[in-house]
Design goal:
alpha+beta, Thrombin, subunit H, six-stranded antiparallel beta barrel, five-stranded antiparallel β-sheet, 20 strands, globular
Length: 332
């Protein structure tokens, strides 16, 4: 993980400066659509050449990949500089639930070291000629081949989509025990791909079969939930890479979510967490009884403030992100 001191300092002078991380198991939910959402799906997508992606990612390239949080930092800085407000967008849907396999849960302080979890792994990709690494998770889907991650882990926001995109479930110490799964299509909200809107920093990748098997049949899949109440409790997973972490093992954080008071225009929520870059895109799993979707994924690691951040922020998963998920889940 490269040092972010100078960037974080400049961002904090604008009231920002960013890091990232998280993942585990659940279902899907949403609430009634509002008039502001009547203009149809806001989805951007691309097909990806997948034949050489797995061979491209050697152990050396995986270990030397740049943590993808730097991409989120740039997107956040651009949004702050524009003074962009998001009040015109309402993102509520009706409660929707799609069940998936269960994951490990364990309460933590700021972070806990975890054993590998099959459906959680690392995401590797190339963007603008550079190799990056994030975290991700296999999510339940009609095609049994869908991976969730942060929007900045598959699209520059705004800008090009990634190439050489693979998902490595249950990654540990450079090993890919369940294989390397190359993406054949990438999906993200247009609010992310067109303007880097941090409110929608989520993306989904549809991966190829490996050994004639679907991803979910090999690694399992976490259920997903949408349009849940704010302020719930989550367990987040990811592969942080900056000191004191190495990026080679899975880490988790646990806590009650609260709104981002530094940049409220992002409309994100944060939990107590000290994970660093590389954890971007890891899943947030619902933990408390205030939601009926306990164990379901309901966000991803997006950003934190400064190199010693004690909170991780993630986007609210409402109707627009659900539209993107639905499109990816149904893709052949």
């Amino acid at each position: 993980m490269t040092s972010k001191k100078s960037l974080a300092t400049s961002l904090l002078s604008l009231s920002t400066g960013l890091l990232l991380t998280l993942s585990a198991a659940g279902g899907a939910t949403a609430s009634p659509r509002t008039p502001q959402e009547s203009d149809g799906p806001r989805i951007a997508s691309t097909t990806v050449a997948s034949l050489t992606a797995a061979s491209y990612w050697t152990s050396d390239r995986m270990r030397s990949a740049i943590p993808g949080d730097v991409l989120a930092e740039k997107a956040a800085a651009r949004q702050i500089n524009k003074g962009k407000t998001l009040d015109g967008i309402t993102d509520r849907g009706s409660s929707t639930k799609i069940a998936g396999t269960s994951g490990r849960t364990k309460t933590t302080a700021l972070h806990t070291n975890e054993k590998p979890v099959n459906h959680i792994g690392k995401v590797f990709f190339t963007l603008n000629g550079l190799n990056y690494v994030c975290s991700g998770s296999s999510v339940t889907a009609a095609n049994k081949s869908t991976v969730s991650t942060a929007g900045h882990c598959l699209n520059a926001g705004p800008g090009a989509f990634a190439s050489n995109f693979i998902f490595v479930p249950a990654y540990k110490d450079g090993a890919a025990p369940l294989g390397k799964w190359p993406a054949k299509a990438l999906f993200a909200p247009k609010e992310w791909t067109a303007s880097g809107n941090m409110q929608y920093d989520t993306g989904f990748a549809v991966v190829e079969k490996v050994g004639a098997k679907n991803l979910a049949d090999v690694a399992g899949a976490v259920g997903v939930a949408f349009s849940q109440p704010r302020g719930l409790t989550y367990k987040a997973f990811g592969y942080p890479a900056a000191t004191p972490f190495t990026g080679q093992t899975l880490v988790s954080c646990y806590g009650k979510a609260g709104n981002d008071a530094i940049n409220p225009q992002f409309k994100t929520q944060g939990i107590p967490c000290d994970m660093t870059g590389g954890a971007s895109g890891g899943p947030w799993l619902l933990q408390n009884g205030a939601s009926t979707q306990v164990g379901y994924q309901n966000s991803v690691n997006s950003y934190g403030y400064g190199s010693r951040s004690t909170a991780m922020y993630g986007p609210y998963w409402g109707a627009i992100i659900q539209q993107v998920y639905n499109r990816a889940s149904a893709a052949a």
